[in-house]
Each structure stands twice: as C-alpha cells, then as structure tokens.
Amino acid sequence: MAVIAIDLGGTKALGAVFDGEGNKVREEIRYLNGAGGDEAADLTAELVSSLKDSYASESIEAVGVCVPGIVYSKDDTVWAPNIPGWSRYPLKRRIAEAAGPGIEIAIESDRTCYILGEVWKGAARGCENAIYIAVGTGIGMGILVDGRILHGANDIVGACGWMALQYPYVEDYIPTGCFEHYASGNGIATQIRKALRCARNYSGVLSCKPIEDVDSHDVFSAYDQGDHLATKVLDKAVEMWGMAAANVVSLFNPEKVIFGGGVFGPAGRFLGRIYDEACKWGQPIAMRDVQFCVSQVQGEAALYGSAYLAIRAAGSE
Fold it and tell me: Is residue 263 classed as helix, strand or coil in its secondary structure?
C-alpha cells in the first residue's frame, strides 16, 4: 500500500509518495507561477499523475490534498484566496480524474492538515485534544477535540486571525482581523512599518532599508540587536499569541498547544513568555495542565497531514 500527499500553497504544489510504513519515498514539486483556475488544477493533477506513474513498488490507494483556504465538504469544492479562480472550484473532481478509478481522494484545509501532521508524526502524537496555531503570512488554527477534527457549519473553523484581542475596534482589522493584524508575519511587518513612519529621529538597524521593504525577518534580526522598535512590535505579538492561546485553552482544554508556521521559526524563543502571558488570562486548571510547544514537523506538517488524510481515506489507519 502507498499513498500520495499533495501540499498546495499559493506559489507551488509539493507532492510526495508515502509507503505503507509511513516513509516518504519520493518527492516532486510544481511551481504555479501565478497560475489559477483550470491551469493551477492541471499542474496539480499532472503532479498526481507523475507521482503515481513513477512509483511501481506498490499500488497507490489514496491521494490526500492540503488546500490553502477552505474546503467545502458539502459539495467538495475549494476556495483558495492566493490561487486566482479557486472560488467553489471542483478540485476534488479534477484530482480524481488524474488519479484514476479505485483511488480514494481526501481534501482538507491547511489548518486541518497541520494538526493531522502533528498527530501522525509530530508533537501531538498520542493526543486526543490539541491545538495547532499556524503563524505565517496569516494565522490559522487546527483544532483536535476528543479525537475529532472540528470543521464547523461551513468548514471555516480555525480562522483565528479574526479573534478579537484588542479594543477599540479599528477599520485596519477589516482585511484580516485583529489577531492577524498584529501577530502574523504580515502583521508584524505592518506594525514595524507604522512605527518607522512615526519615528522621525530613528537611526537604528532598520533604517538601512526602505520602509516598505522591511519585513518580519528584519524585525527578528533587529530584535537580536536590541532595536527598541523591533522589541516593541514583538512584545505586542507575544502578548497577542499568549492571549489567543489562553482563549483556546479555556475553550477546548487541550493537552497541547503547538505553534508552527514560518514565524515559529524565529519566534520559538518566546514560547516561555507566551505561556506566561497566557497564564494571566486562561482558565487556571486548564493552563496548569496544558503544554505549549513548537511544531516537531516544522515545514512539513501540511505534507504529513495530507499523507495521513490519504491513509485514513484508504482505511489503513
């Protein structure tokens, strides 16, 4: 038995074959180069076909696909904001056509795949209740409760960038939500650019680049050098990560809260501070019992989650 896993992003599709022991035995990549609609689906389908044709050791029984957006379970369509034309797009049907008869297809959002990847290969192994907070360009959350992944009425569970963590409400929150505005990779870049525009006499390490080119990586680098503006921005992000984590611990009583994504990463150093902040806000007994940790499959959580989806779809779990 073998399965195919596909991790779709806004710029590329990463695919891999996993054997019956759960080992990754082959990997291929396709770059979207701005493709959308049918063209992006064609590239993904071709990747599936290539992986299937190149692996002759065992038959492929299922394909698992991670989508960077929403997977609508009622009609098997997807919405991916970074892939043009994928609004209620019939991706599952296109993948099924490429895979051929007799092969099961399972598609889930990236949030779901992140937590499944940790359950299968990472920090959530053995857990029945765990939360994965993905902090990258944006922020999303995969939620495992009593051994089940939560989806919600319209499959939008985990869009935690819209968590209300700051009063009063301002219109800047409209595009992405309050939490994401301050504490995602793009949010950290937004906050440092605001601070730089307001700091007329600033001559620190971030002054060597045009303000619009400063990104979250620069902020972490400047923080390491003691820059006061970078410190202020990251202190705010730590506060937000802690408050958000406290809310989900109080709501769901998980065994673990796992931080992942591109920002964790460099933000992993703040894990102790994030927990201390969360303890100010969270339900005390739940906070005492929960463990905060960084992803153990950083960068591959979605791919492993897709493979685990496929294994479950094949009935081989």
Answer: coil
For residue 168, is the peptide bond before it cis, meaning its omega torsion is within 30 degrees of 0? yes
pTM higher than 0.90: yes
Burial 144-178 (b: 16+ CB within 10 A, else e): beeeebbbeeebebbbbbebebbeeeeeebeebbb
Q: For residue 305, give the nearest of 85, 125, 75 by alpha carbon.
A: 125
State both tokens at 218.
Answer: 């620069």
Instruction: Average the pLDDT over 193-206 and give the result.
Output: 95
How far is the C-alpha of 134 from the C-alpha of 60, rounded, in Å? Answer: 30
Cα 210 to chain centroid distance, Å, stands at 29
The predicted pLDDT at position 302 comes to 96
Query: How big is the chain, counted in residues?
Result: 317
Question: Using one digit for the tens of pLDDT, what is the confidence trace for 125-138?
Answer: 999 999 999 999 99
Edge-to-edge order in the sheet of strand 77-79: 70-72, 77-79, 87-89
Do 59 and 100 meet the contact criterion of CB atoms below 8 Å apart? no
CA distances from residue 196 to 193, 205, 218 in whole angstroms, order as listed: 5, 11, 13
Contact 241, 257 (CB under 8 A): no
Dihedral angle computed from the Cα positions of residues 264, 218, 11 and 87, in that order, rounded to the nearest 10 degrees:
80
Instruction: Give the pLDDT mean for 230-248.
Output: 98
